[in-house]
Design the sequence.
């Protein structure tokens, strides 16, 4: 006998709008949606709350195996679940080994077994050593291939130079794959000032806009040569939007993401000596932030993901706040959806746009099957956004190391109940997540 129940909400985000809805869930799948409330539904969402699809975060570093002291499958996916993120795609670094061969993917899958609180898929990596063998990873089910145009920060995941980037794109285009790119130019950064300093303004000067612009230009030129589908990771400089606009107008298969910390935090408000805010590329000024929001609303930026990239307290703080020496990365998988839902009103966008950017779009662009949106036939991955103010306490977050750029920030609402494939998750959910592979 099928396991079936109904969920009724006075406000639900589906089909691009917000309105009353009743969902029928059968064996973990949404099997019907009616645009009305049902008083006798099995689950009734409170009048002040909004029913959303779970977020799909396609940029998460879980670091296991090899650097599990930074993060791990259990802690990282538990944090995702607490923040309404029901699907994550794991980056191919900073684990050891990196996910650059089928054997390394098998090692990562073995490490993840029995630890997942949400559903999880894998990115592969494109590095100099595996060029010519990328299709083997593609056939193993990865969602695409990540590369860097400058040193990644870990020795075992090397960047691609211009010729190697062309080789990788040619190969990936040959089997219809996707390349995702960390686009900053190494020579530009090497030439920028990088003093030992606690001042955030000094760190910002060490990662200039020009580094992103030059690398984005190289990527677009190489797309034009090869026809490869490319996704630009974590755009931080709004000056890159002119290049993006021209590439899209030309019809090149380019998509772009940015992150909640670029959209909700600004350089002017970052205290000196606070490495929890350091990430690469960096959080820039408020004018840049406003331009990123405009790029989102105009469709030049396609999605918003967290780039959850945690590390240990020793890596973050051993330098005494010297921002040139500390590890860069913002731990945000639990807070990103909340931060963006909170920011919607102040930026004049509806919650349906946040869902488009953080659930529907990531699933569609990356080919994540049966995820992203309250849609008949999709997994019943649901989240409730409740008008209950909360102030973020880093020590209360679920990821492994209690460090967060969001510590102390107050939001007007919070994610409360979350369902994964129709199963209600508690605050410390059992590890019932599934592995997922490319559609």
Sequence:
């Amino acid at each position: 006998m099928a396991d079936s129940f109904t969920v009724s909400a006075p406000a639900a985000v589906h089909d691009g709008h917000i309105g009353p809805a009743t969902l029928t869930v059968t064996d973990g799948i949404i099997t019907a949606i009616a645009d009305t409330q049902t008083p006798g539904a099995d689950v009734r969402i409170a009048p002040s709350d909004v029913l959303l699809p779970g977020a799909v975060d396609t940029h998460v570093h879980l670091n296991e195996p090899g650097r599990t002291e930074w993060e791990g499958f259990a802690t990282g996916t538990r944090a995702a679940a607490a923040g309404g993120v029901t699907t994550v795609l794991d980056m191919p670094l900073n684990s050891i080994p990196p996910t650059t061969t089928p054997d390394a993917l098998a090692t990562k899958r073995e490490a993840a077994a029995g630890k997942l609180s949400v559903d999880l898929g894998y990115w592969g990596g494109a590095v100099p050593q595996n060029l010519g063998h990328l299709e083997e990873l593609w056939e193993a089910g990865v969602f695409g291939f990540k590369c860097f145009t400058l040193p990644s920060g870990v020795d075992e995941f090397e960047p691609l130079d211009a010729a190697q980037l062309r080789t990788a794109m040619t190969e990936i285009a040959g089997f219809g794959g996707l390349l995702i790119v960390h686009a900053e130019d190494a020579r530009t950064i090497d030439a920028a000032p990088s003093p030992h300093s606690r001042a955030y303004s000094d760190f910002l000067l060490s990662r200039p806009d020009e580094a992103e612009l030059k690398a984005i230009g190289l990527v677009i030129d190489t797309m034009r040569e090869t026809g490869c589908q490319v996704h630009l990771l974590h755009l931080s400089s709004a000056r890159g939007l002119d290049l993006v606009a021209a590439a899209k107008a030309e019809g090149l298969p380019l998509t772009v993401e940015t992150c909640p910390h670029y959209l909700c935090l600004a350089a002017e408000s970052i205290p000196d000596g606070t490495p929890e805010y350091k990430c690469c590329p960096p959080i820039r000024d408020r004018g840049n932030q406003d331009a990123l929001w405009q790029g989102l609303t105009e469709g030049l930026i396609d999605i918003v993901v967290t780039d959850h990239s945690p590390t240990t307290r020793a890596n973050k703080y051993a330098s005494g706040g010297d921002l040139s020496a500390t590890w860069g990365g913002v731990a945000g998988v639990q807070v990103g959806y909340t931060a963006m839902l909170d920011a919607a009103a102040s930026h004049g966008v509806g919650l349906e746009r946040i869902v488009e950017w953080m659930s529907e779009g990531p699933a569609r662009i990356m080919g994540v099957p049966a995820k992203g949106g309250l849609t008949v036939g999709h997994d019943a991955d649901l989240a409730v956004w409740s008008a209950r103010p909360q102030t973020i306490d880093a020590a209360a977050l679920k990821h492994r190391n209690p460090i967060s750029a969001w510590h102390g920030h107050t939001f007007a609402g919070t994610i409360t109940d979350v369902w994964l494939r129709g199963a209600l998750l508690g605050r410390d959910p059992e590890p019932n997540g599934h592995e997922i592979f490319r559609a």
Summary: The first strand starts at residue 4 and ends at 14. The mean pLDDT is 97. Residues 21 and 35 are 4 Å apart (CA to CA).
